[in-house]
Amino acid sequence: MQLLDGKALSNTIKDELAEEVGRIRQSDLKIPHLAAVLIGDNPASESYVRSKVRSCEKIGFQSTLIRRKADITEDELLEIIDDLNKDRDIDGFIVQLPLPKHIDEDKVTLAIDPKKDVDGFHPVNFGKMAQGLPAYLPATPFGIVTMLDRYGIETSGKECVVVGRSNIVGTPMSILLSRKAKVGNCTVTLTHSRTRDLAAHTLNADIIIAAIGIPNFITGDMVKEGAVVIDVGINRVEDASKKRGYRLVGDVDFDAASEKASYITPVPGGVGPMTVVSLLMNTLKACRERDYQ
Ligand code: GUN
Hints:
Elements: E1 2-3, H1 6-26, E2 33-39, H2 43-59, E3 62-68, H3 74-86, E4 92-95, H4 105-111, H5 123-130, H6 139-150, E5 159-163, H7 170-178, E6 187-191, H8 198-202, E7 207-210, E8 228-231, E9 235-238, E10 246-249, H9 254-258, E11 263-264, H10 271-288
Parallel strand pairs: 1-11, 2-3, 2-4, 5-6, 5-7, 7-8, 8-11
Antiparallel strand pairs: 9-10
Helix pairs in contact: 1-10, 2-10, 6-7, 6-10
The site of guanine has 9 residues, from β4 and α6.
């Protein structure tokens, strides 16, 4: 079994991006600038956004964090988005999800200028992705594709089972891996809460992508010998032995699945850091392609 070390790989890619920033500085071009909007005080969202902003600083991008309380109105948030759409210095921005219940996430996503939508959540980017046109790919699926590519894992002709059909991971992942592309050409099965006999599907899979958000949902006996196992879950489970009172576990029972898998991602340190680095790659792309200099 080989570990798919997202932390190490993301650091390698960050070094490459930092070199690119060096070249940008020498050429006197604009430094990429990412803004992140964080609403409320969801601890997981705070931690993700902190990591995104810190990564920007590490590689020399500019970053702006916009924080508002959970009682912000939908109109106030839409106004912030409008300002960011118009701000000539901001190349790309994200609105961290989930949002408080009284705010319509679809409305918020639709309000983001697709040219600045470095999360790749806007239907314009999603549609382009589905048709294989140049687009901002959603950060987590993009990170997984990058990881499979850099580790040289063959995907063509493989059976891939995606577990979970969210708009931000499962559904775009299933589309990307079925595309005619260097990392793609899989036969993809997208499974979800109504799937009958999930294990029958996963046991047939050469590649399993688990994105369901339930701790240890994929057990060892659901994994085929030699399968590639990608665990997208980042679940907090209570653990009194830890100072912070919890530990992070994935959607896969790591110990049991590693006995079967040829490659497997750890949690933490697998997909998570790849998501962050994908956002940085999208921000660099947005900066290069800006048409409003
Ligand atoms: N919430 C969970 N993952 C993501 C992500 O990739 N982007 C945003 N904006 N919110 C998220």
